[in-house]
TrEMBL record:
Protein name: alpha-1,2-Mannosidase
Family: Belongs to the glycosyl hydrolase 47 family.
Transmembrane parts of this sequence: 28-48
Catalyzed reactions: N(4)-(alpha-D-Man-(1->2)-alpha-D-Man-(1->2)-alpha-D-Man-(1->3)-[alpha-D-Man-(1->3)-[alpha-D-Man-(1->2)-alpha-D-Man-(1->6)]-alpha-D-Man-(1->6)]-beta-D-Man-(1->4)-beta-D-GlcNAc-(1->4)-beta-D-GlcNAc)-L-asparaginyl-[protein] (N-glucan mannose isomer 8A1,2,3B1,3) + 3 H2O = N(4)-(alpha-D-Man-(1->3)-[alpha-D-Man-(1->3)-[alpha-D-Man-(1->6)]-alpha-D-Man-(1->6)]-beta-D-Man-(1->4)-beta-D-GlcNAc-(1->4)-beta-D-GlcNAc)-L-asparaginyl-[protein] (N-glucan mannose isomer 5A1,2) + 3 beta-D-mannose; N(4)-(alpha-D-Man-(1->2)-alpha-D-Man-(1->2)-alpha-D-Man-(1->3)-[alpha-D-Man-(1->2)-alpha-D-Man-(1->3)-[alpha-D-Man-(1->2)-alpha-D-Man-(1->6)]-alpha-D-Man-(1->6)]-beta-D-Man-(1->4)-beta-D-GlcNAc-(1->4)-beta-D-GlcNAc)-L-asparaginyl-[protein] (N-glucan mannose isomer 9A1,2,3B1,2,3) + 4 H2O = N(4)-(alpha-D-Man-(1->3)-[alpha-D-Man-(1->3)-[alpha-D-Man-(1->6)]-alpha-D-Man-(1->6)]-beta-D-Man-(1->4)-beta-D-GlcNAc-(1->4)-beta-D-GlcNAc)-L-asparaginyl-[protein] (N-glucan mannose isomer 5A1,2) + 4 beta-D-mannose
Keywords from the UniProt entry: Calcium, Disulfide bond, Glycosidase, Hydrolase, Membrane, Metal-binding, Signal-anchor, Transmembrane, Transmembrane helix
Enzyme class: hydrolase
EC number: 3.2.1.-
Length: 677
């Protein structure tokens, strides 16, 4: 009977039954252990709020720990003195138990003396921690968030925050002011005046129309960037119509992301976080001139790559940009190995072989190219501590300064081997333009200390004003060219930058020479505007001429194209900052509308081949300087003056802002850099 009730307990069956029960228990144990492990690993994410705040909170926590360690620094090294009511216990600890009154009194005096010395040592150590820059490596600079109105009134409240390469969300709505004067001085930089505010983002104008128009410019930048990212990422430039990459001869035959480097500071200034980080990551991972095996233009590489990288280094402090600029700058040095020190135009960065263009007046170097290295090379020496770059451009200056200048007008060509001028052709357009621009800007960059630059500029601009500045029959001001002592009444679109140059000279120089220069500046800005409004597209030609029957119009078909150039709006930007005449903003807005109508395509923005046609053919090139210059000047003209103040920044000829010595705490000078102005 029991056989039908009790299980058959054979050895095999019994063993199997026991194992089955054991494994079930084992499964329960494993499940419990697994749940416990998951709870330990995942639980803090939900229960510890400090871990849910992202990178920003984690970085802040590091600084909190550092601050506490800093406060506790003296105690970590020197033990704190005992409290008065525990003197006897402290004496017992250090000297043994005391059994009589005399011993206690003697040890009490010793302890008080030791306490006094400890307090003095602690205070000295604390002072050293607070004052020694070497011990403040984790100190965070000040980030001040202000509105443009507060900036104008000087009502600024500082608060500690991190310098981040990733621009904070909403940065476009607040101005980022980085590195107070004390911190700049501690790091070897040039200390700005204590009440200065360096605004590099935000800077909204109080005028709602200006704010709306500025947002439109930002949308244009995003459209152009997305086209480049989609169809030409890593290439030098974009063909927005055919939607593919483009590489001009000035960049050699290889892809070096010229558009990315040219656009970085514009993206940062506009607070376009995602796009800036995309560009920054590309530079960090891909920008390497060791890969190049072709010739590159020394001039273009300097103003776009070196200048662009130095600018974004000044704005962010990210050493990646400084190091890349230094890497590229050193690749250019073989071009300076000439008998005079005047560099060649082209250099092969792989083997250092350099040469000039065959068409350039018997193999001469070009004035606007070797004369447009000074701002970048001086700043590169200052932030890297390597004096070689400053030495190279100072030698160029010495050579040019000592030469006889025929009629006071610098020819566009100079032979780097013989040290003699080439063809007698003087122009403030192509071949000559930025040489003069860098004379006045070198003076500004130095904090008005570079007297040689000032003297050279005043001498050159006086000759230009006396001999080349003209008035048309209807009263339009323009700058003619001189060829073999004969005037050619033609002005390039490139020469329209002179409105800003004349305005800057009038603004920063205290000299009789510049007394009428603001009037000339306004006249040039107006003439360049006329070259725009006299076309059906509202965009100006590459060159325009003046004669009895024609004014501010192109004559030759080779002069009628527009390639997204910035020089006209550059002049209007300076005129707006210096005069506040609202017409300059209106002219800039009309340019925005013309760009949208005639240059915008699905893939980005393209130049046009004839500005005098209602429906012009596209040239299918989105130039890298569209980001660096044209968009930047359009954005700034609709911004408050505090954004990239002209008292604190000087723009290189590619519109990359570089800090002014003594007026900008973002100068970031290396400790071992010795500046000689």
């Amino acid at each position: 009977a029991l056989a039908g009730v009790l299980p058959v307990y054979s050895k095999r069956g019994g063993s199997w039954a026991l194992r089955r029960v054991f494994r079930s228990r084992e499964k329960v144990l494993i499940l419990c252990v697994g749940l416990t492990f998951l709870l330990i690993c995942i639980g803090p994410i939900f229960y510890l709020p400090d871990l849910r705040g992202g990178l920003s909170n984690k970085v802040d926590n590091v600084y909190k720990v550092y601050k506490e360690m800093q406060k506790a620094g003296p105690e970590l090294i020197l033990p704190p003195p005992p409290l008065p009511d525990s003197v006897e216990a402290a004496a017992d600890h250090h000297h043994g138990l005391l059994h009589n009154h005399d011993g206690l009194h003697h040890n009490l005096l010793d302890t008080q003396q030791q306490d006094h010395h400890r307090l003095e040592d602690k205070q000295r150590l604390l002072d050293k921690i607070n004052n020694d820059a070497e011990l403040r490596v984790l100190e965070k600079p000040k980030i001040v968030q202000i509105s443009s109105t507060e900036a104008n009134k000087g009502e600024v409240q500082a608060e500690e925050n991190n310098i981040k390469i990733e621009v904070p969300k909403g940065a476009a709505e607040a101005a980022a002011v980085v590195q107070p004067p004390a911190a700049a001085a501690a790091s070897g930089g040039a200390a700005a005046p204590a009440d200065s505010v360096v605004v590099v983002q935000g800077g909204e104008d109080p005028d709602p129309t200006a704010r709306q128009r500025r947002e439109k410019v930002k949308e244009m930048v995003l459209h152009a960037w997305r086209g480049y990212k989609s169809y030409a990422w890593g290439k030098n430039e974009l063909r927005p119509v055919s939607k593919r990459g483009h590489t001009a001869g000035i960049f050699g035959r290889q892809d070096m992301g010229a558009t990315i480097v040219d656009a970085l500071d514009t993206l940062y200034i506009m607070g376009l976080t995602e796009e800036f980080n995309e560009g920054r990551n590309w530079v960090h991972n891909n920008l390497d001139f060791n890969q190049l095996r072709s010739e590159m233009s020394v001039f273009e590489t300097n103003i776009r790559f070196v200048g662009g990288l130095l600018s974004i280094y000044a704005l962010t402090g990210d050493p990646v940009f400084r190091d890349r600029a230094l890497h590229i700058g050193r690749k250019l040095l073989p071009a300076f190995d000439t008998p005079t020190g005047i560099p060649y135009a082209l250099t092969n960065v792989a083997n250092g072989i350099s040469k000039n263009y065959a068409w350039a007046s018997g193999g001469s170097s070009i004035l606007s190219e070797f004369g447009t290295l000074h701002l970048e090379f001086v700043y590169l020496s200052d932030v890297s501590g390597d004096p070689i770059f400053r030495e190279k451009v100072m030698r160029i200056r010495d050579v040019v300064r000592k030469m006889d200048v025929p009629g006071g007008l610098y020819p566009n060509y100079l032979n780097p081997k013989t040290g003699k001028w080439g063809q007698r052709h003087t122009s403030l357009g192509a071949l000559g333009d930025s040489f003069y621009e860098y004379l006045i800007k070198a003076y500004v960059q130095s904090g008005s200390k570079d007297e040689v630059a000032r003297e050279m500029y005043e001498t050159a601009i006086k000759a230009i004003t006396d001999k080349l500045v003209m008035k048309s029959h209807s009263g339009l001001t323009y700058i003619a060219e001189s060829k073999h002592d004969r005037l050619e009444h033609k002005m390039d679109h490139l020469a329209c930058f002179t409105a800003g140059m004349y305005g800057m000279g009038a603004h920063v120089l205290n000299s009789e020479i510049v007394e009428n220069h603001m009037e000339i500046a306004e006249g040039i800005a107006n003439t360049c505007h006329e070259s725009y409004v006299r076309t059906p597209t509202g965009l100006g030609p590459e060159s325009f001429r003046f004669s009895e029957g024609i004014e501010a119009r192109a004559l030759k078909s080779s002069e009628k194209y527009y390639i997204l150039r910035p020089e006209v709006v550059e002049g209007w930007f300076y005129m707006w900052r210096y005069t506040k005449n609202p017409k300059y903003r209106e002219w800039a807005w009309n340019m925005v509308l013309a760009l949208e109508k005639h240059c915008r395509v699905e893939g980005g923005y393209t130049g046009i081949q004839n500005v005098y046609m209602d429906n012009p053919q596209k040239d299918d090139v989105q130039q890298s300087f569209l980001f660096a210059e044209t968009f930047k000047y359009l954005y700034l003209i609709f911004s408050d003056d505090t954004l990239l103040s002209l008292d604190q920044w000087v723009f290189n000829t590619e519109a990359h802002p570089l800090p002014v010595v003594g007026h900008n705490s973002m100068y970031r000078k290396a400790k071992d850099a010795e500046g000689q102005w």
